[in-house]
Design brief:
This protein is α+β, with helices and mostly antiparallel strands. Helices cover about 50% and strands about 15% of the residues. Helix 2 crosses helix 3 and helix 3 runs parallel beside helix 6.
Length: about 120
């Protein structure tokens, strides 16, 4: 699923609990990480999470359903883009615009993922 599709689906829901259920659903449907991908652990996440890259294709994994969904959203934002393009993106602003009701710990992980991607 593309980031635009995810964003459009989330925009149709006002209930914060339903939004988080959608996020978890996004994570449950992430494509598998190919063997050729290089994976990095995301330090600063409340749960174990990885962002993986194979060229300009991005994938992810996590041990929590909600974090897996967050990884799915963030990797979809940058999928197909080169590191120079990612550096120019306002990933934090774009993610904040989704209006997800995340706790401080989860937001710390989001910021760690964004920092990782913007420093490729």
């Amino acid at each position: 699923m593309t980031y635009t599709e995810m964003k459009n689906i989330l925009a149709t829901v006002d209930d914060p609990v339903e939004k988080l259920e959608l996020v978890m659903d996004f994570g449950a449907h992430m494509p598998p990480v190919p063997d050729s991908a290089v994976c990095s652990d995301i330090v600063g996440c409340a749960s174990w999470a990885q962002i993986c890259r194979d060229g300009n294709r991005f994938y992810g994994r996590a041990d929590s359903g909600l974090v897996r969904g967050i990884v799915a959203i963030i990797t979809a934002m940058v999928d197909g883009k080169a590191p120079d393009e990612i550096k120019k993106m306002d990933l934090a602003g774009e993610f904040a615009a989704l209006n997800l009701n995340l706790g401080t710990g989860r937001l710390g992980g989001v910021n760690s993922m964004i920092s990782f991607l913007q420093n490729l």
